[in-house]
Design goal:
Elements (H helix, E strand, L loop, with lengths): L1 E3 L3 E3 L2 E9 L3 H10 L3 E6 L4 E3 L4 H5 L6 E3 L1 H4 L4 E4 L3 E5 L4 E4 L3 E4 L2 E4 L3 E3 L8 E2 L4 H9 L4 E5 L3 H13 L4 E6 L9 H14 L2 E4 L12 E4 L3 E3 L2 H5 L10 E2 L12 E3 L4 E2 L1 E2 L3 E2 L4 H19 L13 E5 L5 E6 L5 E7 H20 L2
The structure holds flavin-adenine dinucleotide.
The site of flavin-adenine dinucleotide has 34 residues, from helix 1, helix 2, helix 5 and helix 8.
């Protein structure tokens, strides 16, 4: 078993070690920010960053939604370890990985994201996590595809697949109403696009995949945070199963552990509890990384400041919905739709990668 203590002596000063678990939007941003003041070890199984917000595009035929991690971390004191974290020992301040490695830390960032709740995807049931397999299945031949879940991810999946796989009949089943987070105008726009694309919607129906008579089921009902590792380590979780953090994003049980992204139960006074979104993961990751740098310079970490501005929804490649929202994410009446909505959404998605490259 290797034992890596990444604490270096540079110009007579001790360089602190920060370990970041997960290289999604939150973890990668935190790693890049913390690198201003520390040697960072970024632990994630893949050597590529996945643009998870494009998983519906991958399912619809986009060839690649990843970028080499090396292009984000070059020229920074960040070392990527291609492994999966298996254990956290918050008392010894160590992380162990599935390749037998042990990594000591002064500060840890927990950024393991989330996954589709309830189903991992097998047989005719798929989730966004296995979008590339869904792509192959759709290529195999036409039939019926039922998307379960009428929130933003389900809406993006259904409209993207209905426009790309024209020979498939796409339907949606949802327990509540279609697009519950949208304004009446926003919902009306989604309905009109669905009608144009021939997507039939059944609302108010709670189903299991077994009950659905469909060649393919895409389960997009809800997300759950990847916090099993935190729970096993005795790190406190909140009532939603996310790592419980204070206003500066430190774990309430172990203040040398920060949590960011979907796995973190972050909140602000203006926004309330933050939903699982890339829109939150980037600023939260940035604040956590900056706070670590502040702490390691002997200064006080600062509270997260965050508010919402809009929800961006793609409805295929040629249509979109830009829904303006209040600070707490509740919808305003103002929306931008059509090609302009699609263009804004694409710009926002590109900006996320740009922000990481220039962090
Ligand atoms: C189809 C789809 C569309 C979306 N569209 C939008 C959108 O338009 N706007 C928006 O704001 N949000 C959107 N989201 C949500 C957004 O993708 C997530 O909120 C965001 O990815 C969360 O970032 P994160 O850094 O917390 O986690 P992730 O991006 O999920 O990254 C988690 C990281 O942890 C790694 N990991 C997992 N387990 C381990 C382990 N044991 N050891 C080491 N590493 C591990 C993973 O490999 C990955 O690198 C969408 C999601 C989906 C599925």
């Amino acid at each position: 078993m290797s034992h890596n203590t990444v604490r270096l002596r540079l110009h007579g000063m001790t360089k602190h070690s920060v370990v970041v678990l997960g290289a999604g939007y939150g973890g990668l941003m935190a790693a890049l920010r913390a690198a201003d003041q520390a040697e960072v070890t970024l632990i994630a199984p893949s050597s590529r960053f996945t643009e998870r917000v494009r998983e519906h595009e991958l399912a619809a035929g986009r060839p690649d939604i990843t970028h080499p991690l090396s292009t984000f971390i070059r020229n920074k004191p960040v070392t990527h370890v291609a492994a999966r974290a298996t254990t956290i020992d918050p008392v010894r301040r160590e992380v162990r990985t599935d390749d037998g490695g042990t990594y000591s830390y002064d500060r840890l960032v927990y950024a393991l994201g989330s996954r589709t709740k309830g189903y991992r995807g097998c047989g005719r049931v798929f989730t966004s996590e296995n979008a590339s397999y869904l792509r192959k299945r759709l290529d195999d031949g036409p039939g019926t595809l039922t998307v379960v879940g009428g929130s933003l991810t389900g809406i993006e999946m259904a409209s993207e697949l209905a426009s790309a796989a024209r020979d498939w009949r796409v339907r949606m089943v949802t327990a509540g109403e279609l697009g519950p987070s949208l304004s009446a105008k926003g919902r009306a726009h989604v309905r009109s696009v669905f009608a144009e694309l021939g997507i039939a919607v059944r609302e108010g129906q709670t189903v299991t995949p077994e009950e659905i008579d469909s060649d393919v089921v895409l389960w997009a009902a809800s997300m759950t945070p990847n916090t099993e590792l935190a729970a096993e380590a005795g790190i406190a979780l909140d009532s939603d199963g996310r790592v419980a953090v204070d206003a500066t994003l430190r774990s309430v049980s172990y203040p040398d552990i920060y949590a960011v992204g979907d796995a973190a139960g972050a909140r602000t006074e203006t926004a309330g509890p933050l939903r699982m979104a890339c829109a939150a993961a980037l600023p939260v990751g940035s604040r956590a990384g900056k706070n670590i740098a502040l702490e390691l310079r002997g200064r006080e970490p600062r509270p997260l400041s965050f508010r919402y501005y809009a929800q961006c929804v793609s409805l295929g490649r040629d249509n979109g919905l830009f829904q303006f929202v209040n600070a707490d994410d509740s919808p305003k009446d103002t929306i931008v739709t059509g090609r302009l909505g699609a263009l804004i959404k694409e710009r926002v998605v590109r900006w996320t990668v740009f922000a990481l490259r220039h962090a």
